[in-house]
Every structure is written in structure tokens, then in C-alpha cells.
Amino acid sequence: MSAETLRRGLERVEAALIAEASVRGALARRDAGLPHPGDDELLGARAAELVAAQRGDGSWGSEAGELAATAAALLELSQLEEVLGEGATAPPSVTVAGLAWLRGRRGAPGRFGAGCAADWHQAGLCHHFLAGFYAPVADGAEPETQVTDSALALRASLRWGERGTTADLHLDGLRQVVAHWAWPPDAPLLAARAGLAALATVLEAPQAQANVVCAADGVACLVRTQRADGTWHGAELFDALDTLLLGVAHGFVVDEVDAALARSAELLALTQKQNGTWGTAPAGRHPLIAWRTFRHALGQGLAVAATPA
Predict the structure, then answer these.
(1) Which site among 162, 164, 192, 294 is 20 to 30 Å from 272 CA-CA?
(2) Are 196 and 223 in contact (CB under 8 A)?
(3) Average pLDDT score over the chain
(4) With 0-12 CB in 10 A as exposed, 13-18 as middle and 19+ as buried, what is 191?
(5) What is the pLDDT of residues 272-297, one digit of tens each?
(6) Where are the beta strands (DSSP E) in the chain?
């Protein structure tokens, strides 16, 4: 596919995104070095919206609180603070309460790896090898959801400075998930989306040697398992692209990653609607991820900011 086709795809999504009075528009303008005077106000309003949505017990989500919703809110607040400056997004009491609620889900019933079976034990993915995972509030979550929600919770906690033995043990477990996804002995026990979530957390973890090696293996697996049409089996396209771009933001800029992003950019160009979107309605994070993918493929976005999507 010609660079001109990719450029037209970029222009279609950019025409709406750069002019958009939204958080994703503000973040795109920041990436492009074209901030508008009102962008900080937009981002601050989003932070205030998140703060107002926090429940009295420190959680976000339904009446019982939700692990994924709470982790996502804390992660987004940390990412917004990275843009706006320390202390600009939420009073300390908000993050203290949110992190305390998350800690209450550590080791709770329903966490990933709580049981043991022969195949899971052989893969090192049972309670004999894993500790520190957070549990969803709802019972009966599938293993992939247990992993993805717990990985998101640890990612948010690390962003707010959580450290210690329990976090280290959880990271050990997530590295094991990435290793199993990257090099399964037989049929993988977890769908690729679990490996993606674990990889995203490892990418943002402190850059200890074990984390760097694991992140490199995970990024290599993501490149290796991409299908010829630019998609992935068992993983949503935009989630995979978001993780690859996170890898770029953390220094994994190599020819193989460039080629994978270019293949997906070609798919995005072919499936894009005339209004610059994909699907019946513009999903919240998809236009920004697609815009960053096009920019990288065209050599315009090699230093993508690790900011919220």
C-alpha cells in the first residue's frame, strides 16, 4: 500500500481529532505539538469528572465497586497528572482511598491462580507459583478477565508509587503470564488479551533487568503473532496497537515493531469510513490510537507519548 493511502487515512482521522474539543483531541494536539489554550481545562474537567464519580469506599463502578473500573480511573488520573503536573488532578485523599480499596482486593477469593490443576501447575500459573493478584468483585470471572483486571490494578498502583514485596510477587506472576503467552509448551491456557494486559503492566514497571527482558519477549511475541492482515488472534486490534505503541514509548523502537504497526495501519486505511472512524460510532480511544499508528507508520510519531487513550 502506498504512503499516500496511509496519509489520506491519517488526514481523515486527524481532521476531526485535532479540531475536537475532547480529551482525546487535547492529547492528539499534545502529541503533534499543537496545543490549544483550552486543552488544560478540558483535561482538568475530565479529572474532576473522575474524582466526582468515586464512591465513598474509594472505588469506582457499580454499587459494589469494580476492580477494572477502579483501576482504570486511578490509571487515567495518573496519566492526566503526568500531562497537567503533579497535584493538578485530584486531592491526595482520592488516590489514597482508591489505592486502599484496591489493596483490599489483593489475595481475595476469585483471584487468578487461586486453585491448581495439572496443566496450570505445569505452566506455573497456579497458587503454588503466583501471589499478589487482585480479585474482581464479581464471582466466576474467566481467567483472562482475572488476569487483565489484576494487571490493570497493579499498573495503576505502580503509577501512584506503590512498591513492596506484594507488588514484586504480582509482577513475578505477570512475567510468568507473558512468558506462557510468548512461549506456550502446547496450546496456550490463556487468550492473547491476558498476555497483552500483563505486558502493558511490565512495560510500565520499574526497569529492573527481569522486567526489561520480559517486556522484550512480550513485544517480540506481539510482533511474531500478528496475522498477515494486521490483526491478532485472541486480541482486539486497538488493544494490541495500544500495547505496541506503549512499547515504542518505552524504547522498543525496532524494525519489526515498525513493520507490525505499518501492517495494521494498512488495515486501518482499508477499513476506515469516510468520516475517519471505524464502526458505527467513534469509540472513545480508537481514533487516537489509530492516529498514533498512522503517524508512526509514516515516520511522524516515533516518540509517542505514553498518555491516556
Answers:
(1) 192
(2) no
(3) 91
(4) middle
(5) 988 778 875 556 889 999 999 999 99
(6) none
